[in-house]
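--- STAGE predict ---
source: upstream dedup step, 1 unique chain passed
mode: sequence only
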Amino acid sequence: MSRQIIEGKSVSETVTLAFSFLSHLATGETISSASTTATVYSGTDASPSSLISGAASISGSTVSQKVIGGTLGVTYTLACSATTSLGQVVVLSGFLVIVPAI
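--- STAGE serialize ---
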């Protein structure tokens, strides 16, 4: 599993995160399917999966996922899993912190 840096967001923001799998793909290899999950790393949220809005979308070597809501002060682990045309399953993950709106 590789790590990705994800900037914090406020509860009221809706953001689309991009996970780049380019360095994990062989020449000619493509992403066949992808999904993103959210779990609590620290803090309390009884429903971390509600952070994920809709299905992940694939464009070339990048997977995009819309993220909404969250609980102020909670740090989430987001894991984006991509299955490739050659049968690889590659996971990129990062920490998302829900910060106060400025």
